[in-house]
Structures are given as structure tokens and as C-alpha cells.
Design goal:
The chain has helices at 17-28, 35-43, 47-54, 56-71, 88-97, 107-114, 128-146, 160-170, 173-176; strands spanning 6-10, 31-34, 76-79, 98-104, 151-154. The radius of gyration is 16 Å and the shape is globular. 34% of the residues are buried. With 184 residues, the protein is α/β, with parallel strands linked by helices. Helix content is 53%, strand content 13%. Bound molecules: shikimate-3-phosphate (S3P).
Length: 184
């Protein structure tokens, strides 16, 4: 019997994980989930509010809890918040239960996609220069970790449909067996 695996989409804020996840899932005939959405549903607060009221540490606990549960119920495409892969336990859980795909964007691309979006607490209330500097600083730490993913897809200036095509092309054959139709 084929082993059921999850597909974890990781990468920096603005990389397109939440846009790509549902489309990729449809393509692969799988369900999909977004870890942040589940955390928000459970907490009945937005991610920004959780950071505000309870602090980042509490958010990371909730994120870890949800990731654990999702990892135990494959097969599903998972959109993983940008900070989750930085936790060793989260990383081991993902790598032992699925394929990790890094949607890679550079700092300028991330900035142009996110701007000063207030829904992202790590980048909220920052001026343009501060925001750029913060993205660079975070990416410097995160990129080496993200790069350990099974598959890396460069996403600078790339439309979601093309990203999906690249992802599908790089998936192992046994998973591709379930792909129906073609990517437009
Ligand atoms: C975070 C990324 C966000 C969200 C939270 C923290 C991060 O998710 O989990 O604001 O640490 O990079 P997205 O990557 O989906 O924006």
C-alpha cells in the first residue's frame, strides 16, 4: 500500500503559500489547510491579535499544536506560516510525514508583495526602510533552514499558475500518479 504523505508549503511571508496551496491541492485531488487559519479559528482571534494579547510565544505554541495535529492526518496540502519551520520539532514533524516544498522569494520581492500589511505582526508598524531591513534580517536566518526542504521553487516575479506547474513537475512520480487534468 502506498504511504500517505502531506505536502508542506514553506517560505517567507508573501511567498504565496496560501495562494498556491488550494490550487495545488485541487490539482492533486487533495484537501488543503492553512495552519494560521486553524490557529485563528481555534483562538477566535486573528494572528495579529494573538501576538498582541498573548505574545509571540503563545502563538508559536498554538502553531506547533496545530501542525502536530495536521501532520497526523495525511494526505493534505499544508500552508505553513513563515516562522514555523524555524522550530526543530516542527521541522522533524514535517520531514517525517511528508514532502517539504520551499517557495523561495528574495527580500525585495517579499517586501513588494507584503508592503506594510498590518496583518503580519512581525512587520507591522514599521516604516519602509525598517520593514525592508527586518525582512532582510529574518530571511538571513531563515533561508538556510528553508533551503533544507526536499524541493525548492524560485518564485520571484512568478505567477501562481507557473509556481504550481514548477511544483507539480518536481514532485516524485508516485505522488504525480494522482494528478488529474493539466495546469493551465
Ligand atoms: C509569520 C508568518 C505568518 C504568521 C505569523 C508569523 C512569520 O504567516 O504565521 O504572522 O514568523 O514569518 P505567513 O507566512 O503565511 O504570512
Amino acid at each position: 500500500m502506498e504511504e500517505l504523505v502531506n505536502i508542506y508549503l514553506i517560505g517567507f511571508m508573501g511567498a504565496g503559500k496560501s495562494t498556491v496551496a488550494p490550487k495545488l491541492a485541487e490539482k492533486l485531488n487533495m484537501d488543503w489547510v492553512d495552519i494560521d487559519d486553524i490557529v485563528e479559528e481555534r483562538a477566535r482571534f486573528s494572528v495579529a491579535e494573538i501576538f498582541d494579547y498573548y505574545g509571540e510565544l503563545r502563538f508559536r505554541e498554538l502553531e506547533k499544536e496545530v501542525l502536530k495535529e495536521v501532520s497526523e492526518d495525511p494526505p493534505v496540502v499544508v500552508s505553513v506560516g513563515g516562522g514555523a519551520p524555524m522550530d526543530n520539532e516542527n521541522w522533524s514533524r514535517m520531514s517525517s510525514t511528508g514532502i517539504i516544498i520551499y517557495l523561495e522569494v528574495g527580500p525585495e520581492e517579499a517586501y513588494s508583495r507584503i508592503g506594510s500589511d498590518g496583518s503580519r505582526p512581525l512587520l507591522a508598524n514599521l516604516g519602509e526602510d525598517e520593514c525592508r531591513a527586518k525582512i532582510k534580517q529574518l530571511l538571513l536566518k531563515r533561508h538556510p533552514v528553508y533551503q533544507q526542504a526536499d524541493i525548492q521553487v524560485k518564485c520571484n516575479s512568478t505567477e501562481p499558475q507557473k509556481v504550481i506547474r514548477k511544483v507539480v513537475e518536481s514532485l516524485p512520480d508516485d505522488l504525480l500518479g494522482s494528478v488529474e487534468g493539466s495546469v493551465e
